[in-house]
Amino acid sequence: MMTSQNAETPLAPLFSLLAEDAGLQEVATRYRQDLYVAVQSAMQLRNALLALDDVAAEPWPPMQTRTAI
């Protein structure tokens, strides 16, 4: 089990409720600390991305179609 000294945050009950609402009751009860660490990791990764001016924009280049040969 992964643990973190700062895993318990004021939003921790919200994370548990969201996990339970998503059908992850066992994770929310048995692996609560792991859930908090995973949420914190996802938040850090998201914050590392550049801010988008257009929230509907894709963060990767658009796909190109092949030309007919």
Overall morphology: elongated
Task: Please give the count of helices.
Answer: 3
Briefly note the structural class of the backbone: mainly alpha
Query: Which runs of at least 5 residues are low in confidence (pLDDT < 50)?
Result: 1-5
Order of helices and strands: HHH
N- to C-terminal distance: 55 Å
Beta content comes to: under 5%
How much helical structure, as a percent, in the residues?
A: 40-55%
Task: Return Rg in Å.
Answer: 18 Å
Number of distinct beta strands: 0
What descriptive keywords fit this protein?
single chain, 69 residues
Overall description:
The protein has a domain at 20-55. It has helices spanning 12-21, 25-30, 32-48. The radius of gyration is 18 Å and the shape is elongated. It is 48% helix and 0% strand. 4% of the residues are buried. By secondary structure, the chain is mainly α. The protein is built from three helices and no strands. It starts with 11 loop residues before the first helix and ends in a 21-residue tail after the last helix. The model is unreliable at 1-5 (pLDDT under 50).
